[in-house]
UniProtKB/TrEMBL annotation:
SUPFAM superfamilies: MetI-like. It is a multi-pass membrane protein. This is ABC transporter permease. It comes from Hoeflea algicola. It is found in: Cell membrane. The chain crosses the membrane at residues 12-31, 99-122, 134-159, 171-192, 227-253, 273-296.
Length: 308
């Protein structure tokens, strides 16, 4: 277990380092000249050169890369061209709101997937089985921007129960969380239902049923523990989507999270901010997947035996 954990941690560090260097090189080669973007339209050449010295882009590329890596290790991603503020401060203002939205959405989707998926697997021809299939089909076919617009139209404009956008407290999370939940729920629901259906046919489940144990205990204690293993992999993928893919939901609801900040940075070609957001979100995604891999090996003894 210790060797496996060390190897996975080392792999994660290498992945984050490769992502950081790749983002730096790609942005330097494709983002254009930020000095010309920042300077007035009819700025003189000496003014543009002054901006280049200020941004540090007048130095050789390898020197910029060394400086970037050294500063990034200290958590310093430079100053934003667009906001004229430290990149880390901007990220720290937006990231907690995105994590809050992602956490609420993930918890809500897992609750629905585990509860409804388990009941649907146990009674596939009941109303719950039909509801599970219908909800998965709806979530798969309805894009986030459409779901968000419909929710705003009904609950914010029509009924006036909830705010239409921005962030002014917990109520502001309700509509974006529902829209994001519907987008990640179908995969979780289908994976858990099919996994649960397979586990319920295992011999140890049939034996427990023959001994007269309560069905709820068999389903939600013994079967669910084994059926959740594939769901852990799906959660790892969903976390990556939630950290970077909620940009659509954040734009629809004017939610001041990391997705909206990334969109502003892209439009302004603010590559210090783009670099910071990409590295922070990628690092978070890698760390979450590392934890899921370690948790996977703890839950499933077969993986520990293969590692040994």
């Amino acid at each position: 277990m210790g060797t496996y954990a060390f190897r996975r941690i080392l792999q994660s560090i290498i992945i984050v380092a490769v992502i950081a260097v790749s983002v730096f090189l790609v942005l330097r080669l494709s983002a254009g000249d930020p000095a010309r973007i920042r300077a007035p339209v009819f700025a003189r050449a000496d003014v543009i050169e002054q901006y280049r010295r200020e941004f540090g882009i007048d130095r050789p590329l390898i020197e910029q890369l060394g400086s970037f890596i050294g500063n990034a290790l200290r958590g310093d991603f430079g100053d934003s061209f667009r906001f004229q503020a430290p990149v880390m401060d901007l990220i720290l203002q937006a990231l907690p709101k995105t994590l809050m939205l992602a956490g609420v959405s993930l918890a809500l989707s897992l609750f629905i997937a585990v509860t409804l998926g388990s009941i649907a697997a146990l009674r596939p021809k009941s109303f719950w089985g039909w509801l599970s299939s219908a909800l998965a089909a709806f979530g798969q076919s309805a894009p986030v921007f459409w779901t968000g617009a419909v929710l705003v139209l009904i609950f914010a404009v029509g009924l006036r129960w909830l705010p239409s956008g921005g962030f002014n407290g917990p109520l502001s999370l309700v509509l974006p969380a529902i829209a994001v939940t519907l987008s990640i729920l179908p995969t979780q629901l289908r994976v858990l239902r099919s996994s649960m259906e397979a586990v319920l046919k295992e011999e140890f489940i049939l034996t427990a049923t023959a001994f007269g144990m309560r069905q709820s205990r068999i389903t939600f204690v013994y079967a669910l523990k084994n059926a959740c293993l594939p769901l852990l992999t799906v959660i790892g993928v969903d976390v990556g989507y939630l950290l970077g893919g909620v940009i659509v939901a954040e734009v629809v609801f004017a939610f001041p999270g990391i997705g909206e900040l990334a969109l502003v940075a892209l439009n302004a070609r603010d590559y210090p901010l783009i670099q910071g957001i990409t590295i922070i979100t990628a690092s978070t995604f890698v760390i979450v997947n590392l934890l899921i891999d370690l948790l996977y090996s703890r839950i499933d003894p077969r993986i520990r035996m293969e590692q040994s």
